[in-house]
């Protein structure tokens, strides 16, 4: 018994057609035998924004504090946590080491806020390398782009 806290596996991915361009994000949440798929679309965005949005929406979908194994093929997302980028950015008033503003600050701040209540293990997976749930997220995100950019 893990101190009565649920363990959830989350896979996330973002996609963009052009960068910037129309984008999609997706997440698959796994808990015991349950599986939940979520995805969304933005008309004009970037791949990095969609990667962040996927993680934010996945964490927002959790109803209570959890231990989370979060899998992403985005070095941008994983390294921000594992390499201490976020702490440095915050300490430097959201400026990078070259003194330019950190991009996507509002999404990073939202991600920090929604991640506070969870214990998250950030795990990098290789994209397009046969991981079932990473591939599913990629498919769901790209389907959002196709579905929302079709000419009527």
UniProtKB/TrEMBL annotation:
Its cofactor is Mg(2+). It catalyses: Endonucleolytic cleavage to 5'-phosphomonoester. It is an enzyme of class 3 (hydrolase). The keyword Transferase does not apply. Keywords: Cytoplasm, Endonuclease, Hydrolase, Magnesium, Metal-binding, Nuclease. One of its GO terms (cellular component) is cytoplasm. Binds 1 Mg(2+) ion per subunit. May bind a second metal ion at a regulatory site, or after substrate binding. It is found in: Cytoplasm. Mg(2+) 1 binds at residues 13, 51, 73. Its EC number is 3.1.26.4. One of its GO terms (biological process) is DNA replication, removal of RNA primer. Mg(2+) 2 binds at residues 13, 138. Residues 4-146 form the RNase H type-1 domain. GO terms for molecular function: magnesium ion binding; nucleic acid binding; RNA-DNA hybrid ribonuclease activity. PANTHER family: RIBONUCLEASE H1. Belongs to the RNase H family. NCBIfam families: PRK00203.1. Endonuclease that specifically degrades the RNA of RNA-DNA hybrids. Monomer. This is Ribonuclease H. It comes from Thermoanaerobacter italicus (strain DSM 9252 / Ab9).
């Amino acid at each position: 018994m893990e101190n009565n806290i649920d363990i959830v596996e989350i896979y996330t991915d973002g996609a963009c057609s052009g960068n910037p361009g129309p984008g999609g994000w997706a997440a698959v949440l796994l808990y015991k035998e349950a599986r939940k798929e979520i995805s969304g679309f933005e008309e004009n965005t970037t791949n990095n924004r969609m990667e962040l949005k996927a993680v934010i929406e996945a964490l927002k979908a959790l109803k209570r504090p959890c231990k989370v194994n979060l899998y992403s093929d985005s070095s941008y997302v994983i390294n921000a946590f594992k390499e201490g980028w976020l702490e440095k950015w915050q300490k430097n008033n959201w400026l990078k080491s070259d003194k330019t503003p950190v991009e996507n600050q509002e999404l990073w701040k939202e991600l920090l806020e929604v991640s506070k209540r969870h214990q998250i293990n950030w795990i990098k997976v290789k994209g397009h390398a046969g991981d079932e749930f990473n591939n599913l997220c990629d498919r769901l995100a790209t389907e959002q782009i196709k579905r929302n950019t079709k000419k009527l």
